[in-house]
Design brief:
Distance between the termini: 52 Å
Shape: elongated
Length: 192
């Protein structure tokens, strides 16, 4: 069995293995136990798990987690939920004019704004180079409109080399299982 211990602000992980000792009558007369520190392996595992579910640049969840969350909400019929697609405007222009360092900064700032605007049960993802997605649970059209208004206000205030950040936004509200998830994503790209 495995267990963890907290000591001076750090977490340590251990694994114990117990084997019985039998006498000639096959009665347990004792046990041999071995405990070993597996903190390093556990930390590597947690790091690999994090890397497999998060975008390296923005620390947002990645496309894999996005698809899993959509399926989870749909399968458990947690309707309505809104799927919001956001395409960052002008990333190539920023990269070409000022360098990738500033393009990366623009993506990071956009991610930060999105994280600050979503609700506790909502989630934001970086699904490709310049594309973000937000899933809002228990959301209706007025919730999406309110989110869009707040988002656009925050983006206008945030500048990279005197350029305001900008995104194109589309959304779709899944109200039942009648619309397949592939269509939900496509509809979210088209509808603004």
């Amino acid at each position: 069995y495995s267990w963890e211990s907290h000591f001076m602000g750090k977490v340590y992980y251990f694994e114990n293995i117990l084997n019985p000792i039998y006498n000639q009558d096959k009665i347990v007369i004792g046990a041999v136990g071995v405990a070993r520190d597996i903190t390093e392996q556990e930390n590597r595992y947690q790091e690999l798990l994090y890397i497999s579910t998060h975008d390296y640049l923005t620390d947002l969840y990645n496309r894999k987690v996005y698809y899993e969350r959509l399926k989870e909400l749909n399968d458990s019929e947690q309707f309505p939920f809104a799927v919001i697609n956001l395409d960052f405007n002008g990333l190539k222009l920023i990269n070409d004019a000022f360098g990738h360092e500033y393009g990366d900064l623009a993506l990071k700032k956009t991610a930060e704004i999105l994280k600050n605007l979503i609700g506790e049960k909502d989630s934001v993802y970086r699904v490709s180079g310049d594309e973000f997605s937000v899933i809002m649970v228990n959301a209706y059209k007025q919730d999406v409109i309110h989110f869009r208004s707040r988002l656009f206000d925050e983006l206008k205030k945030t500048k990279i080399k005197n350029l305001s950040l900008s995104v194109a936004m589309g959304y779709f509200i899944q109200k039942d299982r009648l619309t397949p998830l592939d269509e939900v994503r496509k509809n979210a790209e088209k509808r603004s």
